[in-house]
Every structure is written in C-alpha cells, then in structure tokens.
C-alpha cells in the first residue's frame, strides 16, 4: 500500500530507504534545478578538477527549465522535463551524494543500478502541469550558469511539491509495474481487469 | 488582388503564440475532463484532475500551460489572390514569434544544434506554407514541445508489410515512448508520400479537432483499430499504468512510390496547443 511521505532536504540514507515505488511525496525546502546544458557544465567542471557551484550532498535535483517570471512573480511555469537525457550524467551526480531527482519518464538500467548503489530515489512529477507546479515554488534564484537562461541552475524554495516514487533504492520501477497491471492482449480485452 | 500588410501578419502570429500557450483548446480540455471520469486507474484519474486544474491556473493566472512553450511550428494557407505588402512575409512571421515569446513571458527553447547556444528569442520558427485558392490568409501557430517530438519516428516500410505493418509500427512507437512524451497523448500518423511528406502529414494530422471523426471511412476504421491497440498497451496517464494512453489517433494519407510505404508517427503530449488566425 502506497503512503504519503514529506521530504525535507538535505536527505540522509534513512530518508530514502523508507521510500517505495508508488509512494507519494511532498517536497518542502530548498531544491536545485539542472537540465541538459547545466549537467554538461557540472560534469565538465568535475573532469577539470574544479569546484562545483553547489554542494549536491543530500540534495534533491529537479529537472526543469522554467519559463520566465512575470514582473512581481516568483517564476513562470515549472514542470519536469524528460529525464533520460540526463542519464549519462546521473551516476556521477549520485556519487557526489545527490539523494533524489525529480523528473518525468524512464531512466536507464545504469541509473536504476546507481540508485541502489548510492541509496537514492527517482521521483516523477506531472509532466505538462507547469502552471500547477509553479504554485508550490515560493522563491527562485539563479545560482550558477546564468548565461544558460532557462537551463541555468536555480535554487528553489518549495512547499509541498507533489511527486511519486518511480524508482526506489531497491531497484524497482513503477512504470513497469503500472503498465503490467493495465496491459491488455487481444484475448483479455473483453475480460474484467484482474488487479486494480 | 487583396492586399495584406506584413504588420497584420506579425500581430496575428504574436497573439496566436501567446494564446496557444495560455489557453488550452476547448476540445482538449473536454477530453481531459472526460478522462478524469473514465480512467480506471486511480493515479491516472488524479493526473487528469491535475491537468484540468493546470489549464484553469494557466488561463486565470496567466502562467503558461507548460514551461516548454515549444518550437513554434507555423502552418500557413496563403490564398493565391492575396498580395503581401509592407515587407518580407517570412520575416513578418518570425517577428511575430519573437514578439509573442518575448512579451508573453514564454520560454525561449531554441538553440544551435551543436554548440547548444540559445538563439535568445525562440526564432527561427518552422514555417510550412501552402498556396490555396481564395483571398484569405490562414495562420496556425503550433508550439511543439521537445519531449513528445523526441519520441516521434519516421519508418520506411516495405510495401509487403502493408496495413498490418503500419499499425504495428504506430503501436511500437507509442510503446517505446512509454511515459516520456507526457501521456495522455495524441498520435499523429502520416502514411505515404515521401520521407519528409509523411512526417509533415503526421504533424498536420495533430491539428484536427480532438474527438472529430476522420471524414474518410477507411482511415476512420484504421484510426479506431490503432486507438484500441495503443490503449491496450496500459501505459496510461504519465505512464503510471492505465486505460487512457492516447486521447486520439489521427491519420492523414496520400499516395506513395510503388517501392515505398513511409509511415511517420508524430507524438503530441496532452498539452496540445494550437491557435489559428484568419486574415
């Protein structure tokens, strides 16, 4: 039975270990953003032996490139972007101590294995609900790579940002299980759903 | 010849780009509301509920529906009795995109493909112009998100693969996409023509009003068959498992070469945004 868990970063192993696929989480506190270009910059900095602009230990990374804020507003629309494009960078980020990522869509087997190895989770937010999610964001500030525009690293203060555990630190995948539950073959089409 | 000023074109494109990103079409909103009632999966119903709420916030609070305000794809039907005056036609459209994305607080999502440097104003838009009879100019602005576009495919089938092969490819493309393109999706399918025409047909198919039947009975039957098989995949809203993976499958078809059977699948996320202006 799935549960609802409040997450307040920084996170430690214990916070992550209780999370299981299908659990609903509400994130409050400080999280950071990065998407394609920022990930490349971060990994390039590491490769060059330079210091990163943010210490990701225990942190939550949100894959988002927000739309511009109107004057007087905190931020524009801010829903998740598709996560697989960050897959090649993710094991490195987890090695730095990152504890959770918020995005949408499938992760690679390498990422799922790295989540187990480093005790971390992958959370899904609702893709295409950028206006709704923006209401959970109370403060936003660019903290690195401002020249990347929407792809800059932002520090966000969020309240009860909703997400679902897609991949837990036990190697399980909600996408696989959910689809299995509702898949129909030609033979089963007319029959009632087996498990709901 | 009826004359149309480029300034009017710029204004129409700007307004359509902004409206498309803030005001979800009635047909899409109705489908989302229906999904909230009809989806069997509880998490799927919750997703539909969020998407209906999202559309309300976007419209009332003037926050874009999605942070990915898209690459602006512009379909133009230019009446052959129209004369464009006052400047360069395509530049007028690009200026409309520039102004719409700037003044509308929309995200600029275009970059150099290799250096990834942002172009800064969401131009250049991709423009498809058709010359048609009459003295009107119809402009449809379609902000296309990257997530669903990335999951789109063109397949060059062997003619021997036939109708069954077409269905199989469409279903396989949706299956492979899984949760990535933000289901519930709309599946645009282009069959025939050439490599590039099939892709264009698939994109154009997305513009048909959601829920409206295909006027061609052969294609209507094909759409129904593909719709059922796509939804039998069980992907569901946001890929969490459910009955409604696609809200519709729309097909456009035209003759192909005797050696070829091109099939393009253009996947559209639930944030299906398009606004038209007729001058």
**Low-pLDDT ranges of chain B:** none
Averaging pLDDT over every residue of chain A, what do you get?
94
Strand order of the largest sheet of chain A: 2-3-4-5-7
Main beta-sheet strand count, sense and barrel state of chain B: 4 strands, mixed
Strand content of chain A: 15-25%
CATH architecture level-2 label of chain A? Alpha-Beta Barrel
Radius of gyration of chain B: 19 Å
SS elements, strand count of chain A: 7
Q: Structural class from helices and strands of chain A?
A: alpha/beta
Terminal CA distance of chain A: 12 Å
**Mean pLDDT of chain B, as a whole number?**
97
CATH class of chain A: Alpha Beta
CATH superfamily of chain A: Fe-S hydro-lyase, tartrate dehydratase beta-type, catalytic domain
Low-confidence runs of at least 5 consecutive residues of chain A: 190-196
- Tell me the greatest interface: A-B, 50 and 51 residues
User: Major sheet of chain A, described briefly?
Assistant: 5 strands, mixed, barrel
Distance between the termini of chain B: 14 Å
Integer tally of domains of chain A: 1
User: What is the string of helix and strand elements of chain B?
Assistant: EHHHEEHEEHEHEHHEEE
Provide an overview of this structure:
The complex is a heterodimer of chains A (196) and B (279). With 196 residues, chain A is of the alpha/beta class. Chain A has a single domain (4-182), classed as fumarase (Alpha-Beta Barrel). Chain A has 6 helices and 7 strands. Chain A has a 5-stranded mixed beta barrel. The radius of gyration of chain A is 17 Å and the shape is globular. Chain A starts with a strand and ends in a 14-residue tail after the last helix. Chain B is α/β, with parallel strands linked by helices. Chain B folds into 2 domains: 2-20 and 65-144, no CATH class; 147-273, no CATH class. Helices cover 40% and strands 25% of the residues of chain B. In chain B, helix 1 (6-22) runs parallel beside helix 4 (89-103) and helix 2 packs antiparallel against helix 3 (42-61). The longest helix of chain B has 20 residues, at 42-61. Chain B is globular and about 55 Å long. Classes of the chains: A alpha/beta (196), B alpha/beta (279). Chains A and B meet through helix 5 and helix 6 of A and helix 3 and helix 5 of B.
């Amino acid at each position: 039975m799935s549960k609802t868990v409040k997450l307040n970063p920084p996170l430690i192993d214990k916070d992550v270990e209780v999370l299981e696929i299908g659990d609903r989480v509400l994130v409050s506190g400080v999280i950071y953003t990065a998407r394609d270009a920022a990930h490349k910059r971060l990994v390039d900095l590491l490769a060059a032996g330079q210091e990163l602009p943010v210490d990701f230990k225990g942190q939550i990374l949100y894959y988002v490139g927000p739309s511009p804020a109107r004057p007087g507003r905190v931020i524009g629309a801010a829903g998740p972007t598709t996560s697989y494009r960050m897959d090649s960078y993710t094991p490195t980020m987890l090695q730095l101590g990152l504890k959770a990522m918020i995005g949408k869509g499938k992760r690679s087997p390498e990422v799922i294995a790295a989540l187990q190895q480093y005790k971390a989770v992958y959370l899904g937010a609702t893709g295409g609900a950028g206006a709704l999610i923006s209401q959970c964001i109370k403060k936003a500030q660019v903290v690195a790579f401002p020249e990347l525009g929407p792809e800059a690293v932002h520090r966000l203060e969020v309240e009860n940002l909703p997400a679902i555990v897609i991949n837990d630190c036990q190697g399980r995948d909600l996408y696989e299980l959910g689809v299995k539950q509702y898949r129909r073959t030609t033979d089963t089409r007319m029959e009632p759903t087996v498990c709901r | 010849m009826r004359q149309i000023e480029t300034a009017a074109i710029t204004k129409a494109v700007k307004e359509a780009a902004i409206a498309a990103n803030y005001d979800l079409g009635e047909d899409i909103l109705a489908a989302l509301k229906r999904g909230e009632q009809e989806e069997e999966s509880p998490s799927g119903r919750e997703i539909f509920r969020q998407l209906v709420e999202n559309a309300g916030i976007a419209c009332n609070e003037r926050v874009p529906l999605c942070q990915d305000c898209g690459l602006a794809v512009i379909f133009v039907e230019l009446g052959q009795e129209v004369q464009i005056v006052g400047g360069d036609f395509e530049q007028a459209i690009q200026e409309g995109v520039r102004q719409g994305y700037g003044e509308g607080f929309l995200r600029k999502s275009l970059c150099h493909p290799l250096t990834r440097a942002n172009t800064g104003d969401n131009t250049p838009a991709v423009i498809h112009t058709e010359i048609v009879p009459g003295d009107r100019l119809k402009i449809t602005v379609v902000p296309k998100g990257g997530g669903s576009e990335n999951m789109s495919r063109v397949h060059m089938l062997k003619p021997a693969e036939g109708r069954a092969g077409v269905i199989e490819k469409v279903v396989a493309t949706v299956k492979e996409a899984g949760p990535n393109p933000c289901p519930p999706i709309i599946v645009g399918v282009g069959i025939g023509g050439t490599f590039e025409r099939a892709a264009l047909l698939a994109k154009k198919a997305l513009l048909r009003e959601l829920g409206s039947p295909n006027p061609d009975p052969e294609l209507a039957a094909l759409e129904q068959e593909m719709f059922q098989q796509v939804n039998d995949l069980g992907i569901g809203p946001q890929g969490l498992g459910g009955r409604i993976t696609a809200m519709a499958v729309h097909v456009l078809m035209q003759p192909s070469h005797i050696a070829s059977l091109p099939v393009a699948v253009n996947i559209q996320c639930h944030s299906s945004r398009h606004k038209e202006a007729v001058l």
